[in-house]
Amino acid sequence: MYRHLGRILKRILHGKMSFLLRSRSFPQAMQRWSILGALLIASRHAVAYDIFHDYSGSTFFDGWDFYGSFDNLTWGMSFELGTRLALTVVVIEGNVTWVTKEVGASQNLAYVNSENHAILKVDNVTNVTFGELRSSVCPTAFFSGKGKHVDEMY
């Protein structure tokens, strides 16, 4: 790209290259400078980055560590919210069991679909009975270094 940029810029400045952006109300010289500026900005941002890890397609979850155990922070624990006239209000936090990668895939909680899109989701249960253990995924990945960038696809 950089090799031909100088030649392209010279042709634009000398009017030897035509573009679809021309307008009768916009002076030709100003138009050339606008295109020149746009090309310079584009060339400044055309920096190549090294990919640290590519999370895509069928290998999206490779290198991820699924917890695969009960939630030791909330599973079956109770908290006393307050006491008034010998009435104690106790709330039991959500009973979650973090599943393994294989169980998450079999329950369609964490998997790669036929279009190679990674899916992370919650279950589809509408009515939850008191004390029911809910399966959920808790994938973790740790990186060292600076400059984490993510490109998303919808």
Task: Describe this structure in a few short sentences.
With 154 residues, this protein is α+β, with helices and mostly antiparallel strands.
Characterise the protein shown here.
The structure is a single chain. By secondary structure, the chain is α+β, with helices and mostly antiparallel strands. The chain has two domains: 2-44, no CATH class; 57-140, no CATH class. Helices cover 23% and strands 19% of the residues. It has three helices and eight strands, in the order H-H-E-E-E-E-H-E-E-E-E. It has helices at 2-13, 28-44, 101-106; strands at 65-66, 78-84, 87-92, 96-98, 110-112, 118-120, 134-136, 139-140. The strands form four sheets. The chain has a two-stranded antiparallel sheet. Strand 5 and strand 6 form a beta hairpin. Helix 1 (2-13) runs antiparallel to helix 2. The longest helix is centred in the first third of the chain and has 17 residues, at 28-44. The radius of gyration is 28 Å and the shape is elongated. 3% of the residues are buried. Residues 16-23 and 76-92 have low confidence and may be disordered.
Percent of residues in helices: 10-25%
Shape estimate:
elongated
- Describe the oligomeric state of these chains in a short phrase: single chain
User: Runs with pLDDT <50, length 5+?
Assistant: 16-23, 76-92
Mean pLDDT: 65
Indicate the structural class: alpha+beta
Give the topology string: H per helix, E per strand: HHEEEEHEEEE
**Computed Rg:** 28 Å
Strand content: 15-25%
Instruction: Characterize the main sheet.
Output: 2 strands, antiparallel
**Overall structural domain count:** 2
Number of helices: 3
The overall strand count is 8
Our measurement of the CA-to-CA distance between the termini, rounded to an integer number of angstroms, reads 29 Å
